[in-house]
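Intended use. Records such as the Major facilitator superfamily (MFS) profile domain-containing protein entry shown here are meant for training and evaluating sequence-to-structure methods. They are not intended to support clinical decisions.
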Amino acid sequence: MTEALPVPLPPQDEKSKLSASSFSVVSPHGDDYVSIDPAMERRIRRKCDVRVVPPTLILFMLSFLDRVNIGNANIQGLPKDLNLIGHRFNVALLMLFIPFILFENPSNLIMKRLKPSTWLSALLFGCGIMNMCMGFVNSYAALVGVRVLLGIFEAGLGPGSIYLITMYYRRYELPQRLSWWYCSGIVAGAFGGLLAYAIAHMDGIQGYSGWRWIFILEGLVTAIVGVGMKFWLVDWPEDSGFLDEEETAILLARLKQDRAEEATMDRWNTKRVFSDWKILLGTLMFFGIVNTNYSTNFFIPQNLVEMGYEAISAQVHTIPIYAVAAVFCLGFCYISDKVKHRYGFIMLGVLVGSIGYIMLLCQRSLPVGAKYFALFLLVICGYIVQPISVAWLMNNVGGHYKRAFASAAQIGWGNAGGIVASNIYFASEAPYFETGYGVSFALLLFTGVMGTLMFLLLIRENRNRAEGKRDYMYQAPEADNLGDDAPSFRYAY
């Protein structure tokens, strides 16, 4: 698939003739392009919001729930039944991320060759089956093995969904849509606590413990929805199926205008992709914040138990945390879209999270209510910084191949933060978890440093391009395949 943008408008006859108010053809550089009527543009964008985003929200919500529901099972008897002594629970968490990191990039490159509806639905179905299998394991070794298989199927769902969304929207339309997408993860956290609370009462039915039913029932729902996803998910814009020929032409044209003709990169260029400092900094920035998100999703139920809540009560007390985080996530991503700015909101999230970590590191002198409030701050921080950091990188990479690689690299390699989160919260340090909170605080500050470095370098690069210092790229051997290296491309802050 190539970036065939802009495309010629469809032939006009008396039945499909485009009105003069819909478009005009102008040629500021000698090349025709489509001038789009705002009303028609809004109509197409609404169609995308209805057909592109909702299935990816459900897909991510279910896959994320299957990834982190082990945290809910942990306080319902899982460690006792499987003899998870010492650091065995941490290892079980860790093992998901090894295939998760290894297979995310290959998965996106495979999806580029296939229909997204086929690839993503197959992966989601596999996640559901593996999650059900976790409900039947009888040993630590079996749990680890199934977690590895779950990681293989999980690997392509996150970056694949983001990759698909980015192919339908302009740069400054992305953060709001990605905030909806990430909010589905927040819903998974809240819904997971509610489900775990309800399912915990099934303890003993058919001879299965309550934690087993958490995996079995949630996995069953995921598998069923995975089958339906084949018919609900959309494919690439050229073959979307929900837009007619005229609307498809306009969609492709508006994306082309947004990214600039020279931002096309429809041929793989290893050197240009792997030497891109933006992808490196975006991945490191994501690595730091994803540690906070996995720390909270895996260990908030356990943290609440250590604060004195009963297991079932702890499941319920996770729900308000995620509900409040959803409000902040949607609100700040919406404002970020409106003001067309990213860096300041990332640093605001880092500040909020820093306050939460400082409170928890000093929790010996704090009442339970203050500790609970600190958990709110951590989750709010994660769900402000994570979607905006992803949108920021996607705003600044041009071309199909580069966007596919960048989304997979940032989420795939960045998810190494999950490996760290899996191995820094030790039962022996309960209830204070100094190592866990201390390392997570350091990584959050690391995210702020990487974001600041990216901000300063983007400013410098835009200045160099404005002064003509990158015009020599027009003489490069692949001048028609520059992507965001094109001198006319301007980076977003």
